[in-house]
Amino acid sequence: MKIIVIGSRAYNELVGRIEKIESAIASLPEKGRVRDKEYINDEWMDGEQVCRYLGISGRTLQRLRSDHVITYSAINRKLYYSLTEIRRVLKERSVRRKNQPKE
Question: What are the Helix-turn-helix domain coordinates in residue numbering (predicted)?
Fold first, then answer.
């Protein structure tokens, strides 16, 4: 382990800067925050982000598109999905266990 010694004034300035950054991040709207080291826009996500977010393969996403289960937008050969649409599909396709009370 390497030990670095700095003066108390420099330390206090550093702590002050860190606190300013922390308060700036806390004041960001939810859709501008970083989750799991990855920016996820609250409105739209590309196919790679959707696969990582849901833990599915690209083939599964392709099948959902082909079967017209999920809507998407194509811009410059890149596909984008609405987070609202993803939540809708997840809710519609959720499987209830036996003896699980209805919500």
Answer: 44-94
